[in-house]
């Protein structure tokens, strides 16, 4: 833009008659190093608008966006631990008092429980153990979640 | 159609600048933007269907900032946003202390009547068209043009009186 046009535009600028495109041209003109001496005093004004445009909202991380991720990560970790634990239990060799049949056939009739009271006692013991094992997983999860809540609080 | 989140992300800095220029306080400006975005989120499905969602959000910010100024005024009976702008610690001018002239202009801007300052800000800083300023402020087209003209002239006069600009 030549200086004469810039002067004319500045007259119209202060009269509020310039278009957005013309104001953009003025901004570019005042950013250049070749500004007419009579217009140079206006450089700070256009510089001021530039500085104002550079203001941005502070970026602050919000807890609400991070919280679910933490919980998800903890829940995933707990799930992994539980799965690993159950997998380990199911694949581990069973510790038993019964003889392991390898080559010789086992006479299972020798170990058959014939007494009704004894059978009931064994059944109760098995059910109790099963129940305890079943409760263990959720109990661990609940305990871990409580700990997480305490940390978050 | 843009999602509300992407609209909010793209316009957040503009909302903040407007709120900051109106309230003159960084903390207040953040609160205003937060309130606007939260209340807008509840109407997000309607907002994304608007012709110009950013203009609507700017209008909300403008209105919310006015509410805040009013409540602040009634609370502490202060002298208005202009005086507060001088105290604003988060303006770039405080950060760039060597640029005394810019800070001087900032103080002069703060002395302009609020509506002229807002119209000037939306035009000069945000590069908004007259129609967009009308939508954002709720002023008439005529008033926007008058305020812009008066604002620029008053700023020029202030600059002349302060001898920043030679006659």
TrEMBL record, chain A:
Keyword terms of this UniProt record: Membrane, Transmembrane, Transmembrane helix
Transmembrane segments: 70-87
Recorded superkingdom: Bacteria
Name under which the protein is recorded: Uncharacterized protein
Organism: Neolewinella aquimaris
TrEMBL record, chain B:
Alphabetized Gene3D superfamilies for the sequence: 1.10.1740.10, Winged helix-like DNA-binding domain superfamily/Winged helix DNA-binding domain
Domain of life: Bacteria
Residue numbers spanned by region Disordered: 68-88
A biological process from GO: DNA-templated transcription initiation
GO-annotated molecular function: DNA binding; sigma factor activity
One Pfam family named in its UniProt record: Sigma70_r4_2
Statement: the UniProt record of this protein carries the keyword Transcription regulation: yes
Keyword annotations: DNA-binding, Sigma factor, Transcription, Transcription regulation
Residues of the RNA polymerase sigma factor 70 region 4 type domain: 105-155
Limits of the RNA polymerase sigma-70 region domain: 10-73
Keyword Transcription regulation: yes
Family (UniProt): Belongs to the sigma-70 factor family. ECF subfamily.
Xref: PANTHER family: RNA POLYMERASE ECF-TYPE SIGMA FACTO, RNA POLYMERASE SIGMA FACTOR HI_1459-RELATED
NCBIfam families (alphabetical): sigma70-ECF
Protein name, per record: RNA polymerase sigma-70 factor (ECF subfamily)
Organism: Neolewinella aquimaris
Lineage: Bacteria, Pseudomonadati, Bacteroidota, Saprospiria, Saprospirales
